[in-house]
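The freezer alarm interrupted the setup, so I double-checked each line after restarting. Inputs confirmed:
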Amino acid sequence: MSLLAIDALTLAIRGTPLLRGVSLALQPGQTLGLVGESGSGKSLTALAAMGLLPEGATTTGSITFDGRDLLRTPEPQLCRLRGRRIGMIFQEPMTALNPVQPIGDQVAETLRIHTSAPRADAHRIAAEKLARVGLPTDRIPPSRFPHELSGGQRQRVCIAMAVALRPALLIADEPTTALDVTTQMQILRLLKSLVAEEGMALMLITHDLAVVSGLADRVAVMSEGRVVEENATEPLFRAMCHPYTRQLFAASDHRPARTSLPLGAPLLQVDGATRDYALPRTHLFRRRPSFRAVSDVSLTLHQGESVGLVGESGCGKSTLTRAILGLEPLQQGRIHLDGQPVGPGMPPTLRAKVQVVFQDPYGSFNPRHRIARAVAEPFHLLPAPPRGAARRAAVAEALEAVGLTAADMDKYPHEFSGGQRQRLAIARALIIRPALIVLDEAVSALDVSVRARILDLLADLQTRFGLTYLFISHDLAVVRAITDRVLVMQSGRIVEEGPTDRVFDHPSHPYTRALVAATPRIPAHWVPAAPCPNAGVGQQG
Amino acid sequence: MRSLSLLLGGSLVGLFFAAALVSFFWTPHGVEQIAIQLRFLPPSAAHPLGTDHLGRDILSMLMVGARTSIAVAIVAVGMGVALGVPLGLVAAATRGGLIDEIIMRGNDLIFAFPALVIAILITAVFGPSALNAIIAIGIFNTPVFARVTRGAALSLWTLDYIRAARVAGKGRARISVEHILPNIANLLIVQGTIQFSLGILAEAGLSYLGLGAQPPTPSWGRMLADAQTMVALAPHMAIFPGLAIVLTVLGLNLLGDGLRDLLDPRLRRAR
Amino acid sequence: MLRHLAERLLSLGLSLFAASLVVFAVIELVPGDPAAFMLGMGATPEAIAALRRELGLEGTPLTRYLSWAGGMLTGDFGISYTYRVPVSQLVLDRLQVSLPLAAYALLLSTVIALPVGMLAAVRRGSATDMAVMGTTQLGIAVPNFWFAILLVLVFSIKLRWVGAGGFPGWEVGLWRGIGALTLPAVALALPQASILARVMRSAVLETLSQDYMRTARAKGLSRRQAVFRHGFRNALIPVLTILGLQFSFLLAGAIIIENVFFLPGLGRLVFQGITQRDLVVVGSVVMLLVFAVIVVNFLVDIAYALADPRLRRPA
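Predicted 3D structure, all chains:
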């Protein structure tokens, strides 16, 4: 008998249908990967199984767990199931823990509400569970507060809380999406070992096909509130019967057709750039300590080149970006753009040579300005900006260059989707024809299929306008798809640089090797396009 | 529910504004007309809200008093906005710098002086008057607006469209006016109605103590002070001016709540 | 924590210094010669000069500021122009009324507001919530002195349960003293309780939308358990801020309320000081009120750090 069986589950919130007949089954001890893009209904399916749906949700169908229908189980009994028989962890470890309670107390709470364990015992067991998930008492005592822990450590606390009573089912909703790739690998390994040791079933929800390929026994692909394909992992990847699965797979590893431009003169030169930040005072009468975010970084970008800068959060890539954009000064070193010095006081004519596209498609536009005004904003840098009809014509041209229409210029930002807004941001960067465009995690917030189309657009624009790209990202796959050369940054320093394919295929620095190794990958021989029918058993990992 | 508070609040506020405006041209009786023989009259057809200890018509006094309350509160809020908003914008634009520090410390200092204490200090120097009430409430309002402005502006400064504007070469002052101010205007309008209602309450308190508008200018607080000693004799003298204050303040608060929901696109979309 | 404390103490000292400068400067601005005012029309210039020396009105502004501020620090607030007694004695007498009144009102408003706000948040959208929101909306709009007059009308004049004002002194017994302060405290507490209940409600609702609430529910806590175990303490953080701010409103409110009930407190004292142009009294009492506000805010800061570990041990 299945541990969890979801049958013809439909769900609507205030009349809007969000799940349209989801059926899934999960056997004891099995790992099921639930894959889909945002809005596919994968998280709602999990919340329905937990009985934690938002207010106003109406359901039909059934969710059978341990032989009882959870949709018809009264709330007090659901409370006894949650945490004891079904555990759940969420995407955002930074906010998932109560900030004013020590982590040990939060883990012990799971034990204390479900068992009659005395306080001292609950705390002892909590400390053991924390040690089990990689937070040993001598290094990370249970008396710590969440803010004293890193994101990965906080996610471990969440896991300890969820598995403290050895539930039969653990639901993990995008557990590693907010984490760096090396941390992601550690958390995924931890989940895998917990499943093996405790005999738990795991429902792993993710947007990343590669993550499930290494962990799941079975995979279900969801789209628009339906499960479009469900199978054992390897056969599913090999066959990809459903076109949506194929499309998702193709998009996740999409590499736009690019024609490398002939390299021109050096455009951007960074020499020994160093940037310190003052930290809060530790002592009233001593100097404020400082933190070196960027340390002696040198790099050169040639005209027409596309260069990637990769590194994990906190490595200094954002600080370096701000310095290159001339928004913040350096403590040491120099930056030159087209031979002229870059800094907060640089003249508008020089500023006009570099523009930027940011990550967040929703924060990139002033909600009160029409598109025409927003996209034309960089004209501020020109000594004689076009006015009137000429200005509108220039905006129209920029919009058309990024695949939108001239009619879009009189709309407001909220009328566009995330992908369209990213196109608008590119149009804004493009409108004064800069030599260099800095793309700061420009596709990181997008779903894979939207991301693939934006990458195509970027490749096309580079050829058409002879642009130079500095592509900053934590995502190795994206950098690989769009750059010729890559720089790897760690703790404020560039640790490795070279042609992208060479660096990623044959990394020489230990950190680059760790990054490449930590990136989840679908085993190459599973790919349906590769003609290898039934050739051996694919190894996972 | 929300449109109800907007409607109710709007009508109450509208009523009192209308009363104040009409009082410039017409009141049921003259407010300076003293008729001792008509004193302490309970509500009647000739005097809908009765008369006071000098025989003056309470309805007429309330209408003219609305003028004082509204004028003092509006000017005081205007002063708070005119001083506080620019200070808040500058503080946010120079976040963490010396100017920010000075502005915020100055704010904290003013916060240590309750409005009434400021009024007491001013009155001690210049003597009581409506102008002093305005200045005291205005000084008290300034750090409120500075803080609200700074807080909201700081969260906007981290957004990408502000960074994009900086990459487009726009200076901090220009960004503050072009991008920050329009996006915090809603918040300021809502805060404005709240401060307006607090201003009405503060003006009533000050004139009740005799620190605000001076006789013969009618004011609601003053009317209550007169009524207090005679409350056993003529309760209507205390009840109606108090009701006028409560309904005006209630109206402004409801209006503020309604505006907040109406102007907050986040809330609007959520429904 | 110690560093936080030291920082706050330093800023406390600076605020007091700045506030004392402001008060001193304002009093300096006052036109007229208090010595001449005190001695009346027929005073000789010699007598006025002698009194000026006695009152410490001679010397440069700096030396006068130093002796004024130094006196304050050592508890010597100067001699009242009108009462001709040390101001510290006056203040001490009046504090016996004002301090219990403020504490009584604060206690009332907290004891009423926190449970009510919590209840409204937990039962969001219910009839209880609507009733709480409606009542508090009204409570905020009521000026406390008008409410005080209505209380007197009902309880003293119509029902004759309590006296209409005045204070018999603590000598006549604790309960009679408290009885005399009850109506004033209720009048003071009502608007404050309304504000506090609304703040508490929205603070609890805010915590309900946090991710850690969802985590708590996923652990198996019922909605109610989650609110009480994870909502209350987190909600207290914004509530503390408001409590600190309310203290200054309570002080200001007390000045008015003491006048309504003829209570011999600080508010009456400062008010009489103004009408009699007794600047030593006004300056001292204002300084004392400001001192109280600054110290309470300091205590709120400390309480904040106790409630929020992020301030205690920054990562």
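Quick read of the result. The mean pLDDT of chain C is 84.
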